[in-house]
Specification:
Two copies of one chain form a homodimer. Chain A has 573 residues and is of the alpha/beta class. In chain A, strand 12, helix 9 and strand 13 (265-268) form a beta-alpha-beta unit. The radius of gyration of chain A is 25 Å and the shape is elongated. The termini of chain A are far apart. In chain A, 61% of the residues are buried.
Chain lengths: 573, 573
Amino acid sequence: MTISKDLIDAARGAVPCDLNLANCSLLDLLRGVIRKGATVSVRKGIVAGVDDGLRAERTIDLKGQFLAPGLVDSHVHIESSLLAPPEYARIVAPRGTTAVVADPHEIANVMGYDGMRYMLAASEGLPIDVYLMVPSCVPATDFDTAGAALYASDMHPFLREPRVLGLGEVMNYPGVLYKDQKLLDKIALFRDAAKPVDGHAPGLSGGELSAYISAGIGSDHECTSVAEALEKLSKGMYIMLREGSTARDLRNLIPAITPSTASRFLICSDDRHPNDLVDEGHMDHALRLLLAGGVDPIDAFRIACLNPATWFGLKTSGAVAPGYKADFVVFDSLEDFRARMVFKDGVLIAEDGRLLVEPPGARPPARDSVNIKWLTEEDFRIPAAGSRIRVIEARSGSIITGEKIMQAKVESGLCVADVARDLLKIFVIERHSGSGNIGKGFITGFGLGRGAIGLTISHDSHNMIVAGVDDRSIFRAAKHLNKMKGGMVFAVGDEIVLDLSLPIAGLMSDEGPAIVVDRLRAFEEIFVREGLSNRTPLMTLSFMALPVIPKLKITDKGLVDVERFSPVNLFAD
Amino acid sequence: MTISKDLIDAARGAVPCDLNLANCSLLDLLRGVIRKGATVSVRKGIVAGVDDGLRAERTIDLKGQFLAPGLVDSHVHIESSLLAPPEYARIVAPRGTTAVVADPHEIANVMGYDGMRYMLAASEGLPIDVYLMVPSCVPATDFDTAGAALYASDMHPFLREPRVLGLGEVMNYPGVLYKDQKLLDKIALFRDAAKPVDGHAPGLSGGELSAYISAGIGSDHECTSVAEALEKLSKGMYIMLREGSTARDLRNLIPAITPSTASRFLICSDDRHPNDLVDEGHMDHALRLLLAGGVDPIDAFRIACLNPATWFGLKTSGAVAPGYKADFVVFDSLEDFRARMVFKDGVLIAEDGRLLVEPPGARPPARDSVNIKWLTEEDFRIPAAGSRIRVIEARSGSIITGEKIMQAKVESGLCVADVARDLLKIFVIERHSGSGNIGKGFITGFGLGRGAIGLTISHDSHNMIVAGVDDRSIFRAAKHLNKMKGGMVFAVGDEIVLDLSLPIAGLMSDEGPAIVVDRLRAFEEIFVREGLSNRTPLMTLSFMALPVIPKLKITDKGLVDVERFSPVNLFAD
């Protein structure tokens, strides 16, 4: 932060301010009161004074409406919205979000350093501030083939980026407990620079939690119970209350918020799908839940605005006071919070849900990301090397799977799908290095009667994953994903029934939210029409290659028994 | 901060801890509760866990006593204790203070960069943590001759010192408002490094306060009223509640402390004399005042321990949690707080007021600091260039003076003292560069009947200041101060009635607290015996050369009318 002499002059009244926001009910989060009839004076995007009697070129009478700092999403994977940062901003800015702290873990698994650079470039000049945390766990495991790796030695340049705040969620908690040197090197790099290190420690407690924290990890967004949150608070963590699309923990944790603990909570979305952003909202939704849950409004806004600034070291954010960024949300009800006006850097950027400024276009990524070996239909054959097979048992709405031993259906020496028993073939096709690796297996729990579903989003390595009934459809789906440079597809035989291209790292669209949301709804409708028993087949499929969530998963190298932390053979004979 | 693999192992229970502090009532400041029957486990000076069931080599049963983090003095000039840092630590450590944030403004005015380096070296390895702020206003004014100057260019090396936290109190608020480039350069240096910049803005409000804050100044310890504190809170400042020897503002500010504001308050002593430290206490005294004033104990300890860690960015201080420093105070009453045991870095360093470790000796300063031109008795003559003189009107217990026009008493063409009218001669002798500058004037308000009082403490430039009845005594006092390399003296004719040598920069003793306190008491007794009307003659005298406090002051260059911000002639004719 440089010192603005112009701001000093404006605050003293020696030069006029640009804007007075008069007659507002100011949420004074620093003092903890609501100040009626307040006037906020802004000069060149910065607050010059509050109730200091300053003149301004322009005055907006807010007629008693509330004015608070803009809302902050303290932990988000923007990639989960399937939108590039500018298009993401288009949805969340009008809802009162003026800053997000993004961990570009997904794109980093595909494109590594380049992915991080892409997210920095693509989030320049938006109507929200996009801060970044450097993904700490790329690759996530050694079981599969990620597109990239990020070591401490790759991270140094990011320490000099003003919008890079710290190290992203340290998911690999066993790595901390067992003192994995590569991981400790990353943590030490940011800790030594006095920058925040975010945590991710679902269910960790007692000595193991203490050990994890003692390494310098200071936040957690994985709490699901009050007891878990209170232990983590006591041990020094900031607790991010998560309201994502799938993980919706916020409501359960409200009883942990008291006047005495409120300063240590934040809100975040983690993973939130674009339709939920459009239908339900973003941090405005989380804030409504807090307020409806009985959290004192001052505490609720501290959680949404001031506390993230404290945790992330953003010294001029999160409050309305001299020298702070002029990022505000104006609203008229504490009972039903809706952003009426949103100011970013002193400029009115949204009103009644409409964005008044045009974000820059989604910039193309550094390179295409789908790089698979030349395939033929024959590559999807599974020779019958036994009669009993290990089948992944998927459950609708869950990323945890079971393992089911089933009798293989064999035709001409090949194991094939069996619609009657809801048995599909599933493949993970390595898509980063053109290695030709294909993991082959079977899955149940989809209820797909024909065709194949495929996508290039498959956590965390984001290889291509396709499940289907027949090799023709599977081959067609894979070919089409390749042609689109990534995306989602439903193919039946030679026909592409529906697709959504995600050419940015195979994860994000280059289109706006309207198109993406429409296409996702069309997928939902088709899957209903096709009679699938799984209500979230794309989401379910996208987690079948994540070999850290029990029990049976599949990577480009084959099946993995997560509980035994070991590869296993398809055939159980 | 590096990561300790040993600590990770200890927290997990893979290696035993060094110490368990069992059965305590833990003030869990992070969660905001008192946890009875808690066990705190320590490994190599760091908390490994709390109630994590860890084994330890040694266990101390605290039998239900309270355990809290060590107390922090958030703003202190150690020089005001007249003690070198190790001897200062000897008094405050047994009272529960485990860290102080010192602004070595006084020694810096004498010795500049060397003074700052001396304080760093002399505070190494003490039983308390001494953190330093770099003095921002050296020299304080251009009216007199300080021993040194500190510009931004001198400050860069200190940014790399782990115990240097930020920039010390920016007293020169007009310099901020009028954009003094040399001052802004200093603030920008620390602000850009994301380090705290302490403020000092007595009575500043409205637009001027906003302008001052907008430059990046984030704390204030000069509030004297609740309204002042609340405005400063609203505008983003951390408020340090001061309980010094002279300035005692803490009690008046207690009504500003509510559950909603408590996180923005700290406590400090600013200037506290050694006798008050010995008789009344240090931060333990301030804490007793908070508790007696009805502040919730959790909030009171947050103010004393956790909030300073937040403001100063001390990420592993201020709480008892994994990875935090094992600095604790054990006590048995919240009604009458007294430190029973003090642990520093996991070691019991004090018990029932006794220090159990020996601090290192006071290291000699880099050089002697009293450098005056060869003087003779004749140098103290004041030729009568007029008949009416401007006299400094001193008031007991105050640093503000009046100006009184009096008839000069003239003998043989020289203006002389006049005991009958309480009119003393006063001299400020430049002592840094041997320039020979002597400011000459008259003062009233002491009631001294014979002899001369002199000292080398005179804010902020700490030139030699002597007031007396006759030239012989004045000369003797000055000569003795020179011989002692600084200190305090009362001389009558050729006799030194009492002295205290302060050879460290002319500000601090090289003796322990017992000797210094005894000697100060002896001074007090003598001044009573001599019948002085001023009850604090040494303190009063030490502020007569501070040309920023109204109305009439004297520097080595002569009299200054502070209200007119201008030098004035002794003679008013």
